[in-house]
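Quick start: read one record
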Amino acid sequence: MAVTADWLYQAITNKQGVIVKLADISWFLHAQGVAFCPVHDTLLVSDLHFEKGSYLVQSGNPLLPLDTFATLQRLLKLIKLFKPARVVCLGDSFHDKGAFTRLSADDRTALSHLIDMVAEWVWILGNHDPDLPAEIPGNKRKQLSIGNIRIVHEPEADASYQMVGHYHPKGKVSVNRHAMRGKCFVLTETLLIMPSFGQYTGGLDVNDTAITEHAPKAARQCFLMYEGALYQLNERGRKRQ
């Protein structure tokens, strides 16, 4: 593990992250959109959506298909920072069935380098990538357990504690007439919904019924990512002091 208790304290002081508990396991939620578990030396990242840009280009969208490169570079910095023994990608890592075949040679090399940096790399299968090609290195699984927590792409009714992706939660707040909008972590006593990490991923408002069905306003905390900092929001969308 690269990070120390002093580093965590400083990061929390500087609003770069927050420590939360789920099923009595501590997780550090980082303002760049990953969750790190010191006890299990595991870094969790969700909804990378590699090659979404090239997928949109196929239908005439003018976006430059550079999202995979940008996503890989951001993830590289975080792996260098935390130096985890294990990385878990929480589903929808590839935007569509043909995404892996569209990866450039440079991006394939960069991805292989990331996977080689850790002892274990786990791909949780999502609705966008339910079948990953065998040539992609790493373990492909429908779910993973960390203690009593089920790590799975979408919530499952029979799990007591879960960490999921899929919803791409986003929120907004106005502080001193300054509007802040960003991706969000959403936490209840039994569930953590991760923000999407991919460069071109959109988002679903935290108050959308698809999210409140699993994380009711009265039972949750929302942590909004904005310009390298993490802000806890109350249920009326104001920054909590």
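The chain has six helices and 16 strands.
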